[in-house]
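Structure (tokenized):
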């Protein structure tokens, strides 16, 4: 135990903060007309009659109205819980009894129908276990919906490896808003100088983390936005104005080794 604690003292970073989708998890969703039609059928079973197109437009209108009420830019919108909008759409058709539960179930049905595939990137579980054994604390900071992600983590076998999970819909703000990063830091009483943010989006994950004063590790994966550049593994962290590393791909066996070298 003493050697374990001494090892933590001399680690450059003790707290690793992970993005989820595109970083640990590979996912593809298609929210096409058939998804909305089947979801509308579910609404109809409970007396809330919509066509697929009507449900889609009603959802978009309700979401835009909530976003307009926030009066902020995209990045600073409260991340509005999906199930609340679904609940509102039941109520708009006069269905008030059990509307909250129906909203949750409709949200989860919509997500399930839209998923083409969901899977972990190679060696994720082994890497997280290895990092914990080395003394790192592991945190999740994800732009996501609790009503989806809580169950997807369970399905994928993720969660037990993590010391804490922050999902943006719970905080009504999302990356790159520094308030989301700071919420994790303040709640867990973390030392920012000991934190390394790992994510696949240069804007939300890396830019937001740097603005919050965290070191960063950029992964260029298949889910990185297409307008963002590939990783440059030889990039000098000092040139990037602060501690920063990059990796091309999503092989977590190699990433785990690299994090160990970075942190010493």
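Design, position by position:
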């Amino acid at each position: 135990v003493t050697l374990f604690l001494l090892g933590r003292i001399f680690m450059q970073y003790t707290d690793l903060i992970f993005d989820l989708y595109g970083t640990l998890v590979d996912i593809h969703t298609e929210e096409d007309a058939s998804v909305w039609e089947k979801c509308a059928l579910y609404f109809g079973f409970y007396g809330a009659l919509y066509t697929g197109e009507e449900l889609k437009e009603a959802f978009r209108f309700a979401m835009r109205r909530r976003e307009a009420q926030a009066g902020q830019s995209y990045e600073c919108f409260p991340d509005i819980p999906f199930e609340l909008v679904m609940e509102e759409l039941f109520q708009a058709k006069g269905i008030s009894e059990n509307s909250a539960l129906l909203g949750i179930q409709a949200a989860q049905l919509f997500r399930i129908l839209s998923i083409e595939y969901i899977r972990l990137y190679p060696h994720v579980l082994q890497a997280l276990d290895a990092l914990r054994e080395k003394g790192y604390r592991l945190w999740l900071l994800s732009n996501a919906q609790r009503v989806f992600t809580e169950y997807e983590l369970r399905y994928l076998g993720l969660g037990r490896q993590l010391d804490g999970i922050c999902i943006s819909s719970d905080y009504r703000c999302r990356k790159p808003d520094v308030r989301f990063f700071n919420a994790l830091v303040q709640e867990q009483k973390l030392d920012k100088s000991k934190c390394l943010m790992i994510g696949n989006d240069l804007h939300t994950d890396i830019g937001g983390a740097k603005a919050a004063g965290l070191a960063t590790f950029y992964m260029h994966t298949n889910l990185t936005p297409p307008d963002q550049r590939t990783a440059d593994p030889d990039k000098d962290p000092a040139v990037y104005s602060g501690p920063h590393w990059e990796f091309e791909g999503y092989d977590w066996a190699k990433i785990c080794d690299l994090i160990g070298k970075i942190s010493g």
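Reviewer-requested clarification: Residues 1-7 have pLDDT under 50 and may be disordered. Strands lie at 15-18, 25-29, 115-120, 137-142, 164-167, 195-199, 215-220, 244-248.
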